[in-house]
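Please review this one:
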Amino acid sequence: MPTTIAQLMSTAFCTVERTATVAQTARTMIDDDSGEAVVLDDGDVMGILTDRSIVRAVAAHASPEHPVGDLCTEDLVVLSPQDPAREAVRIMERHALLRLPVMVGPDLVGIVRLSDLVTAIERGQVSVGARDTEDAAHA
């Protein structure tokens, strides 16, 4: 049976409302020891902001008081907990992403990070071959 996203995802994640400032979000991410914040619009997931996004915004002279809703990635690619972990590898490769939100309907239930996948690959839980055992199980 293939490893699923539910087996790898983290259920500890940072969220902020779209009106939060860059400075507030950076502080929340530091407090939560997180490299990303999921941005909410009245409680609904609207995007994701990474530590790298904050650095880029500051380098482009964004004010620390700038709202993060204007800076976050809004075209989210999401997974469900039942998706095979190999699908996260494919999506991250295809879209050059390091983190993917995990959703059940409109609810955020976790985050899967590249580091989660690397650990799973090292442990032999996920194969990255062109035609791996997980793919064969689905054929």
